[in-house]
Amino acid sequence: xxxxxxxxxxxxxxxxxxxxxxxxxxESADNCTLCDISLQLYILINVTCVPCNNIITxxxxxxSVVNSTNVTCNVCNNGTYLANSSCLDCVSPCLxxxxxxxxxxxxxxxxxYDSTNFVCTLCSSLFTNCTTCTISACLTCNVxxxxxxxxFYAI
Length: 155
What we know:
The strands form 9 sheets. This protein has a two-stranded antiparallel sheet. Strands 3-4 form a two-stranded antiparallel sheet. It has a two-stranded antiparallel ribbon with strand order 5-6. The chain has helices at residues 52-55, 123-126; strands at residues 8-12, 15-18, 23-28, 31-35, 42-45, 48-51, 59-64, 71-76, 80-83, 86-89, 94-97, 103-106, 111-114, 119-122, 130-133, 138-141, 145-148, 151-154. It is elongated. 5% of the residues lie in helices and 52% in strands.
């Protein structure tokens, strides 16, 4: 066997062996020549398909010019946002965010998410004696209080 179909390499005179995923084409078991870039999860560096998040922390999809070590992050993992091809952590109380100032969701129900302004606001700042809330209503009260309608009462 002198040559194999794409996705296989010559193991010996009579055998072609399939490349290991995510390698699409290879010259041997450990010598990849093309990674599966359909999902942009891997980059070919030297002869190895390397996961994006091994190159850029918290990066889920990336791209690069062929045979280049200059890798660009395209999408960051949840809880981070993309800034100059780096993935930076969302700032608390944001759980998911667009950038350092715009939230997409809050870390827990003690914060209300304002989808108009992309901010998380502490429930106790919106409603006196409130523990959990939405942007428009208190859902549970602090210990020692109860909620009746929209009013708080001491127990």
